Amino acid sequence: MNAIVAVDANWAIGNKGQLLVSIPADHKMFRQETIGKVVVLGRKTIETFPGGKPLAGRTNIILTGNPDYKAGDAIIVHSIDELLDKLKEYPTEDVYIIGGDSVYRQMLPYVDTVHVTKIDRKYEADAFFSDLDEDPEWEIVAESDEQTYFDTTYSFVKYKRIG
Length: 163
Prior knowledge:
With 163 residues, this protein is α/β, with parallel strands linked by helices. Helices cover 18% and strands 36% of the residues. The protein has a single domain, classed as 3-Layer(aba) Sandwich (Dihydrofolate Reductase, subunit A). It is built from four helices and twelve strands. Strands 1, 4, 5, 6, 7, 8, 10, 11 and 12 form a nine-stranded mixed beta sheet that branches. Strands 3-2-9 form a three-stranded antiparallel beta sheet, with no helix packed on it. Strand 4, helix 2 (43-46) and strand 5 (59-63) form a beta-alpha-beta unit. The longest helix has 11 residues, at 24-34. The two termini are 15 Å apart. The model has no long low-confidence stretch (mean pLDDT 96).
């Protein structure tokens, strides 16, 4: 199972329900990586999408405690156990956890690959991803050259769980 995330220098991912920064190349990489695949996200995350609609060209699975929640053609699950059971229907390499922080936190133990856009800047933030550089269970297996979008430098880094 995969996770895909953009983090700042403090492994922050968001502030007040929004992404920290919008980088077109990051969005392009996200699309290329997840199109035709299964994306798992929380209710708060989907509500930040245009019109609160599921991502086109993907199977959207939304984790929410709200028993009445609906979002287009998305599959709705209400617990981690229900989510894990539903994910058995799909090849594990086709599943991408895409946020937000509570979904990442709950699902990271099941993930073996994390695609990280590392942004070389610190933002004001209230949502964070686990610092994989400080976790001995993870190693970097691929890293792009540093890229720049206006005054923001970033790179794409792929982590794999060791063992």
